[in-house]
Amino acid sequence: MPDHLEARVDALFIYPVKACGALRVERLDIAPSGLIAGDREWAVVDEKGEVTWQGAHPRLALVRPTLDGGVLRLTAPGEAVVLAAAERPRPVQMWNDSVKMMETFAAFDAGDAAAALLQQTTGAPLRLVRFGPEALARRGIYPLHLLNAASLGELNAHLAGQGLAEAEALRFRPNLLLGAAAEPLLPFIEEQVTRLHGGEGERRWQMPVSAPCIRCVVPGVSPVSGEVNGALPPAVAQLSGQRFPGSPSIFGVYAAPTPGTQIRLGERLWLELAF
Question: What are the structural domains of the chain?
Fold first, then answer.
């Protein structure tokens, strides 16, 4: 097998609000900080002021964010558009898995209209906040999540063999869906990639793969209905156990994009392999 493979950017997504719906985009703009512009800059907190997630509130998947000139708009089933501007400062707490502790950061509350939409959708007293710069740059953050379409195909074949419905890519909340170019990609080849290369001329960029993505229960949440399929996470774990016996469930990888660059839909990539 060659030590470089050709691939293609099949789809790009950002998640303006952590734990809410995806926004399909034509390109990812990588800020000077190395973070994806517009991605997970907002979050939902519970009544204790802790950042929450779809594992606790699956219907957050039904909250659809869009960005209009930097202004966040939210919609949800049966709810009108909410324009969210976060101005009132408040502290929030967020779990940092890399250091196994809860950290406190400055954030800005988006007000009662956004909170009402979240409560109507989930039935819980949640509030929308925008992170401050320290929260966005917190330790242990993985800027970009990459999913290989061939790996998703392998999972769906496994699910079909168990009589289960196929899984949509958005269940895994990727930023970049990797597809085949001239030749098909092997399932799970992304786990052997050390670096991706893309762009041309002054737009050339490279992106080290930084870690595998350890999976929780969130892929069991439908991005369409917000309903929970409890059979999906065990199926992911079963496939992962075949590749990594005794390890946590792995599906997809994290990567660290080059600050100040762009990743464009449909562009050709080269995958640098570890062997």
Answer: 4-26+142-273 (2.40.33), 42-136 (no CATH)
